[in-house]
Amino acid sequence: MKSGQRQSAERGTEAPAEAQFGDDEAKGVRAKAALAESQARLELATSAAGMGIWDWDLRTNAFLYSARARQICGLPAEGEITYEMVRAATHPEDFPRTSAQAKRAIDPAIRSKEPYEYRILLPNREIRWVLAYGEAQFERCEDGEKAVRYVGTLQDITERRLLDEQHVQLAQRLKLALDAGRMAVWELDIEADALVGSPDLNRLFGLPEHGNPDLATLRKLYYPGERERVAERGRQALERDDRYIELEYRIVRPDGKVCWLGLRCELQQDADGRPIRAVGVVSDVTERKAAELRDTVLAELTTRIRKLDDPEEISFAAAEVLGRALGVSRAGYGTIDKAAETITIARDWNAPGVTTLAGVLHFRDYGSYIEDLKRGETVVFADAEQDPRTRETADALRAISAQAAVNMPVTEQGGLVALLYLNHEKPRVWTDDELALIREVAEHTRTTVERRRVERDLRQLTVELEQRVEAALAERSLLAELVESTDALVQVLDLDFRWLALNKAAAAEFERVFGVRPKVGASMLDLLEHLPEHRQAVKDAWGRALAGDPYTATQEFGELDRRFYEMKFNILRNRAGERIGAFQFVYDVTDRLNNERRLAHTEEALRQAQKTEALGQLTGGVAHDFNNLLTPIVGGLDMLQRRITADERTHKILSGALAAAERAQTLVQRLLAFARRQPLQPTAIDVARLIESMRELIASTSGPQVKLHLQLGNDLPPARADANQLEMALLNLAVNARDAMPDGGHLTVSAGLAEIAAGEAEDLTPGRYIRVVVTDTGVGMDELTLRKAIEPFFSTKGVGRGTGLGLSMVHGLAAQLGGALRLESQTGKGTEVNLFLPVTQVEGTTRVVAEAPVSPGAGTILLADDEELVRASTAEMLRELGFEVVEVTSADEALRRIDAGFLPNLVVTDHLMPGMTGAELARILRRRRPELPVLIISGYANMDGLAPEMTRLTKPFRQSDLARSLAALTGADPQ
Description:
The protein is of the alpha+beta class. α11 runs antiparallel to α12 (311-326), α11 packs parallel to α15 (432-475) and α20 crosses α27 (868-880).
C-alpha cells in the first residue's frame, strides 16, 4: 500500500490521492513519501552498521539526528535538538577541534570531507569515542556558493579505541621487558636474505640506532670462528628437523668490544620443508658468560691446587686451567731476570700441536715490550703484525704460536719477579672480562705459592724449634718432671703464638675446653680457627705478655662447660736478654670463685634475715603500743559517728579522722607482713574461686581505663594461704598496676599450677605451687628500681601517694606462707608479678566476704586489759551492745575472780599483759571451764603461744568488728 493510500485508510476512506488532490500535489505527496521511505531504509541500514545520521540545516540552524545518532551522543530520544545540546554532548577538550573541522567542511574554498575522531561526554559522565564523516551541500548565491546543509554519519568506536590503547600499552610493556632483558626481536627472510629487527637490535650489535641492520655488516662482526659454528648449528637443526634453535656466540662490535649474544629462534618452512623464514630474539649475555667462566675457572683452580705443595706444580696447574678455559694455544709461568731481560720457563701448558717454550728466552727477540713489563704494566696485543712493539718481530712470534698474547707481570715488594703469559697462534681480541680473570688467577696463584713457601719455611722452622726445645728440655729433665707433676697449667709460646713447651695438664685442659689437642710447634691461633671468639680472647691475653707486659688476670673460657682461670704471665728471654716469647702458669679457680659467690650470697641472705628479724622485733613492739593507742581512737570515733546527729560537716570530719586511723592500722599491718610477724590464719584456699569473686572489686579499683583479664586454670588444687591477707595482697598489686598505667592499659590476673624441681629455685623448696601472676602494660621499672621494689618504704609514687609497703607486704606474706614473690619488668614494657603459694592436701575453700550486722548482746562479760584507755573503750562498746561488763586489769585477776565463783557468759582478754598472757588464761579456762568462751584481743606483739584455733580480734577495731567476733565465738545468729 502506498503512503497516500495508507493515510486514506487511516481516515476510513479508499479514495485515491488523485481524487483528493491535483496531479502536481499528488506527485509531491508521492515524492515526500518516497523520500521518507528512503530515509527510513537508510536509517535502518546505518543502524544495522552501528552508525547514526545527522543533518544540520545551516539556513535554519535546525538539527536532525537519527535514533542511533541520538543514542550515541546521549541526546533525548524525542524532541528538538539544538546547537547547545550538540555542543554539550561534545567533550570540552575536543570541541575546538570538531568546530574547526566543521568550518573547514562548510568553507566553499576547502570543502573538507576528512573523517575525524572525537569524544562524546554522556549525561552520566561516561566518555565514548566516535568517528564522524561529514559533507556539506552548497547552493549558488549572489556571492558565489554557500553551504546550506552539513550532513554526515557517526559511528561508536569506543571499543576499537580501547583495543588500540591496549595494543599500545602492550607494545610499551613488551619494549620495557626487552630493554630490561637487553633483548631485541628480529625476523630473517631466508630466501630474500633480508633482516628486519627492533631498534634494540642495532644497540646490541653496537650499530647506529636507526634503520635495519645490513646482514653483510652483521656477518662481519662475528668473532673469529663463531660464524662457522653458528652455521653448523643451523645445518644440524635442519637435519634433525628441529624448528627451534638456541645457542650463544661471540661478536666483535665496531668499537672493538667482544660480547656474547644469546640467540633463540624458530625456523619456518615451506610445503617442501625448505626454511623460508626465521623469527626470534637475541640478548646480551656477556656478563653472565663472564661470571660463569670466572666461577668455573676459580672453582677448578681451587680444586687442583688444594693438595699441591710445590710452587712449580701450582703455577702449571693455574696455567693449564686458564689456558683450557680461554681456548688459547699456550699458557704458562716464568721467572724474570730483569738485568738479563730473560724469562726462564720450567714448564708450560700447550694446546694439541703447539710446542712448549720450556727453557730461557730473551724478550728482545720478540719485541720491545720488556720495557712495559719492567714498569709493572700488563702487555696485551691482539695481532703481532699490528702492534708497534711487535711489528718487526711478528714472524718470530708466529713461529712460537704467539701472534696474539697477554703478558701479565707478577711483582713482589715492588719488583718484577715472574710472568704469567697466554699465547694464541692466530689474531685474537682479548676482552676486559678475560683480562680481569687472568689478573685474578695470577694474583690467586701468587698468593698460594707464597703461602706454600711460608708454610714450608715454617715447617722447617718448627722442626728446628722442636729440636732446640728437645735439647733444652733434655738439659732440664728434672725441671720438666716438676712442671709435669704440678697441678698448674704451664705453657710457653714464642712471639708468633707457637708452643715452645707445655705440660700434660695444660694440654689436657686445652683439649677439654677447646676440643683440639695442642702440641709443641703448633700455632695456638691456627688451632683455634674454628672458635673465633675464643681465638680473639686468647690472642688478646697472650698478645699483652708477648709484647713485654707481665701481668696476672682471671678470665672465663669454654663452650658448654665454661670455667674461670687465673693466668700469671711472664716474659721469656734468651741468654742474651732478648725477648723471645712468654710463659704462663694457669690455675682453675672456678670452684673457688663459686664458693666465694655462694659465701657472699649467704652473707647477704644472713644480713637480710638479720635486718628482717630486727625490723620484726621493732615492728612487734611498735605495733603493740601503736595499736593500743589506735584502739580507743578508732572505737571512740566509731561511737561518736553513730551517736552524734550533728550537721554533715561534723560527720565528714569524724569520717576523715576514722579513715586516717584505719590507714595507720593498715600501715602497721603492712610492716608486720614485711617482717613476717603478722598473725595468719592459713587455710586451704581455692585461689581461682577467690580471684573470680574479686573480679568486680579489682575492676572498680583499677578504674574504667584499665581492661581486666582473668585467666584461671581449671581444677587447681587448694593453696595454703590466709584469705584476708591474700585478698589484701591482690588489691595492692592491682593498685600498683593501675598507678603504672595512667593512660589506661591491660591488667591480667592468672592462676595456674607450677612444679619446682630440686635446685631450680633457692627461695622455694621443691614441690607444687599455685602460681598467681599479675601483669600490667604500664610504664615498667628499670633495673635499679626493680632491685629496690620490695624494700620497705621505697616508692616511686611521690610524697603522699604511697607508703612503699605494698610490695613489701606481699613479699612478707609469701615468705611467711612458705612461698615466694618474683618481679620481672622492663621500662616501657610493663611489669609481671609472680606470687608462689604452696599447695595443700586439704580440700579448698573460698572466703565469702559478708558484713555481719551488729546485734544486741545478752549476759555478762569479764574484760581483762592492762591498758586503761583500751579497756574503757572496749567496755563502752560492749555495754552499748547490751552486755554487762566487769573490768579487771590483768589475766591473773580475771582467773582469781572466776576461781572465787564469778561465772561470766564470756571472757574478753588482751593477749600481752604483765604476768599471765591472754593465751595462757584461755588455755587454763579451756581445761577448767571448757564451756566458757574466750575472745583474745591482740596488738600483734609476740604471738608465740597463740594457737590458730583460738578466736582472736586484732587491734584497733570498731564496734561492728567486736560484735562479729563475739557472734562467731558463741555461734549466735548475727540476726
